[in-house]
Amino acid sequence: MGKIKVGIIFGGMSTENEVSVVSAGSILENIDREKYEVFPIYIDKEGKWYKYIEDGRKKVLGEKVENIVEIENIISYIQRLDVIFPVLHGLYGEDGTIQGLFELLKIPYVGCKVLASSVGMDKVYTKIVFEKAGINQTPYEYVRKYKNKYIYVDKNFDEKILDLKEIAKKITEKLEFPMFIKPSNSGSSVGVKKAENENELIENIEYASKFDNKILIEQGVIGKEVECAVLGNEKVIASCVGEIKAADEFYSYDAKYKNEESKTEIPANISEEISEEIRKEAIKAFKAIDGKGLSRVDFFVENKTNRIIINEINTMPGFTDISMYPKMFAKSGISYEKLITNLIELALEK
Ligand SMILES: Nc1ncnc2c1ncn2[C@@H]1O[C@H](COP(=O)(O)OP(=O)(O)O)[C@@H](O)[C@H]1O
Ligand SMILES: [Mg+2]
Questions:
Q1: How far is the centre of ligand 1, averaged over its atoms, from the C-alpha of 193 (Å)?
Q2: Domains in the chain, start-ordered, CATH in brackets?
Q3: pTM value?
């Protein structure tokens, strides 16, 4: 039997293009070449697709992707592949759109299918599913923007056009400060801000609306930030729990990628009991969105109460060899190379 042809698609039309390039660089370096024939494909920020020609000497992809040749017919190019690993984060990669293309072409692919990808990408809809599943989360409110108007959407989806002052008043009746304001579709903390008072709340709703016209407002949680990696289709396993120690006031874009003072700790400094509960809830959250393959599920452990509170689910988490997802599984005994093989096998079985 010949080698399995694997397409590794990276880059993409999202704010997380560069992160994806680095993830793909690690995968290219570590994937089992005895088993797999690798076809790296780069999508640039404008959405053009290229073959990436691997250069034996230069292993990791840099900030600027070189050695690329435009693909003329994307569909016929990917149709010859046996399986695709879309190492794409954010919009047009983690949100179900590219998964829809693979479904249409009947090509197996790593990770969540269309529904789970789009639910996981959209923070408001993630909340609605978690609520249904009875997973503990922080109270939230939902606001939409249409043209220049703000619309307050209540828990029954009844909508009211209001000015931002009235919306802020409604929200402060329900939630306590600090609050976190987020574009519903976002990643890498882009557009996410913390508000300590009504003025900041208004400013931050306006700010978040630049990134998405759906805006989520959450009551802030004071506690530890922890993460758990899950792997599987039907039978799902969870890694040990890891902890994020953000160098900033919260885990902002800069704290994630620029501030070297941000630290991670694996395993997290929490009791075995809480850790076990997190692993259970992580699998539950993954099942609730109908996840397949992999996800990283993020939680808080509240200081005062030790309660666990789910934050979000990432259906294509950062995947460099020093990212949390692979590191947590490495600690749990699954090496980076083995993880890649497992994910490809899960895709072929799906
Ligand atoms: N409700 C909250 N309470 C406390 N901190 C929060 C809350 N929501 C978000 N944060 C902080 O903001 C960061 C980014 O928010 P998150 O929802 O994870 O967005 P992203 O999808 O961009 O990672 C989190 O890692 C955390 O540090
Ligand atoms: Mg996050």
A1: 9
A2: 4-109 (3.40.50.20), 120-136+222-349 (3.30.470.20), 140-219 (3.30.1490.20)
A3: 0.96
